[in-house]
UniProtKB/TrEMBL annotation:
InterPro entries: Leu-bd, Peripla_BP_I. Keywords: Signal. Belongs to the leucine-binding protein family. The lineage of its organism: Bacteria, Pseudomonadati, Pseudomonadota, Alphaproteobacteria, Rhodobacterales. It comes from Roseobacter sinensis. Residues 3-298 form the Leucine-binding protein domain. It comes from the Bacteria. This is Substrate-binding domain-containing protein.
Length: 339
């Protein structure tokens, strides 16, 4: 709820509240009413989230965790929680999570990033790429995957940089990227850092010369970046606010009915908390209390309510379709299905 990723908090909480309303209108979870306890999971939070979670779990104050935060925080929580309660991790991430009692339902680079690089490189004849991200596991693993794709497709990497959150060097890095000769840049910056990058990118006149691709810039990021700074910006994800599915039409209607004119921007990261609660309900129902023995592997698929298509097989296999979308004002449109 603070720091670089604090931009996402209102949408995440608002989306979770829709799932809360739906669950409590029926049987809740396992026949019990559901209550949400919101914890600030930012690295910049005054009290470390792992300390808060440990105290709540140890005293039996919470029965499960639905986490929408960066991977660096997930790693801290996994080490603290140690499988004592089910932990559903909802956003896109780098893949590879196999800790007992941890269930990941978000997109991974193999499905989200690889096809997007291939499509954009072919469609727009992009030969030279730059990479920029925050300095932690998700950008580094994602970029390692991207570099493998560049090698296979005979693309050239001309620039690569990792920055701390809220870095004062961002303007210098944008300027360097502009001089690198890159045709496109993969942006793996979080929240407000991505916003600042886009503002600088547009102000330096680079948006008319270079393509941008991100897996984490969503509709809040567009709104904050400013429409004039969004030319040639693409995002790859399994959910966008404009997704035309029956599930998303129902979700949008309930979301705006609940929050009215105060509704935050709909986006993939927010929607993930909605489906995280529904996944938790189905997990508990299907496992009949033995969720820990699954260790991230379901004996049969878990189909859960989602604004995209929610079908969980294992932590490495979540079968939601992935799309590439282009920024158009404050929305993503022109969706192309990649997988």
């Amino acid at each position: 709820m603070c720091g670089a990723a604090g931009l996402w908090a209102p949408s995440c909480i608002a989306s979770a509240e829709v799932a809360l309303q739906e669950l409590n209108a029926t049987a809740g979870i396992a026949g019990r009413p559901v209550e949400i306890v919101v914890i600030d999971a930012a690295l910049e939070a005054e009290t470390p989230v792992e300390d808060v979670a440990d105290e709540l779990v140890s005293h039996g104050c919470i029965d499960a965790i639905v986490g929408m935060h960066i991977s660096a925080v997930r790693q801290k929580l996994v080490a603290t929680v140690r499988g004592r309660v089910p932990f559903v991790y909802t956003p896109l991430y780098e893949g590879g999570e196999a800790s007992p009692g941890v269930f990941t339902i978000g997109d991974t680079p193999a499905r989200q990033l690889g096809p997007a690089i291939g499509y954009m490189s072919a469609q727009f004849k992009l030969k030279k790429w730059a990479l920029i991200g925050n300095d932690y596991i998700w950008p580094r693993v994602s970029h390692a995957y991207a570099k493998t794709q560049f090698h296979h497709e005979h693309r050239e990497l001309v620039y690569e940089k990792y920055l701390p959150f809220s870095s004062k060097e961002l303007a210098d890095e944008v300027e360097t990227i502009g001089k690198s000769g890159a045709d496109a840049v993969l942006i793996s910056l979080v929240g407000q850092d991505a916003v600042e990058f886009n503002r600088l990118f547009g102000a330096m006149g680079l948006s008319s010369k270079m393509f941008r691709l991100s897996c984490a810039i969503e509709e809040n990021g567009l709104l904050a970046s400013g429409a004039r700074n969004l030319d040639r910006l693409f995002s790859s994800a399994s959910y966008f606010a404009g997704l035309e599915t029956a599930g998303n039409a129902e979700f949008r209607e309930k979301y705006h009915s609940l929050h009215q004119e105060r509704a935050p921007m709909l986006n993939a990261l927010g929607q993930s908390t909605y489906e995280g609660l529904h996944f938790l309900a189905r997990l508990v129902e299907q496992s009949e209390g033995h969720w820990l023995t699954r260790e991230g592997v379901a004996p049969r698929p878990i189909e859960y309510k989602s604004a995209r298509r929610g079908l969980y097989l294992t932590n490495a296999h979540n079968k939601s379709p992935v799309f590439l979308a282009r920024a158009n004002g404050f929305l993503f449109d022109d969706l192309t299905r990649l997988s």
